[in-house]
Amino acid sequence: MSMPAGWYDDGSGRQRWWDGARWTDDFAPVDGAGSAASGPIAPAHAAAAGSASGAVRVVPVLGFVGLGLAVLGTVLACIPVTFGVGVVVLLAAFVVSLVGLFKTGSVKWPSIVGMILSVVGGVIGAVVLVVSLLASIPGPVDPPLPTDSPSTSQQPSDEPTTDVSEGRPSPEEIGEGLAVLARAGGITTYDDMPEFYPCVGQYLYDSDLSDETLRATADGQDVDSSEGPALQQAVLEATLECDPQ
């Protein structure tokens, strides 16, 4: 019957490894007193194989760097004014994470998470940028129209002049009359725009409206003649042209 594998004295006074069938070239280490250590000590080739199989993994520095850059790039990409910088940082994070993924002996999950976050962060940043651009586009605004008949309680107390012999009023006079009519109708939108009513007055002055109609407008009274619809149309066109918004 064969002896089981273990350390045995080979006759020379030293412990030698018996593999169960024959002697190997492995000898037990000798202590300070010159005697071989007793007991089943693992042979040298077995220890070497064990150390190779239990190699220590390398710290994934590149993986963590790529993950950090991905987080930073995502934050920057979600801010419209820094979207370009965020995209550059996300590209750098993807490249660094990709390099860290192929580094031998290192943990892979930081690199994988960094690559995924780089792509997701870029998509989120692009969506935020598009939404902010769409929100900044102003929608169509209908200009207010002067009312047809201002309240009698808000009409000027002075009797408007009926003298039409003065000729065509100036653009400034027409603009002032329109301002009076607008305020009487409760329209104060253009009170903070000093150039609006003179601009409308100039537009009406250059139109084909008669002197009598423009004089009545300059005096702040409604026009009930046949030119009333033409005057309203001209005021609408002038509002579209003179409104800076």
Describe the protein's architecture and organization.
The chain is mainly alpha-helical. The chain folds into three domains: 6-53, no CATH class; 61-136, no CATH class; 152-242, no CATH class. Helices cover 49% and strands 5% of the residues. Strand 2 and strand 3 form a beta hairpin. The radius of gyration is 47 Å and the shape is rod-shaped. The relative contact order is 0.08.
What's the SSE blueprint?
Blueprint: E1 6-9, E2 15-18, E3 23-27, H1 44-53, H2 61-77, H3 83-101, H4 109-136, H5 171-184, H6 196-205, H7 211-218, H8 228-242
Write a compact overview of the structure shown.
The chain is mostly helical. It is built from 8 helices and 3 strands.
Overall mean pLDDT stands at: 77
**Beta content:** 5-15%
Distance between the termini: 107 Å
Rg measurement, Å: 47 Å
Helical amount: 40-55%
Number of helices: 8
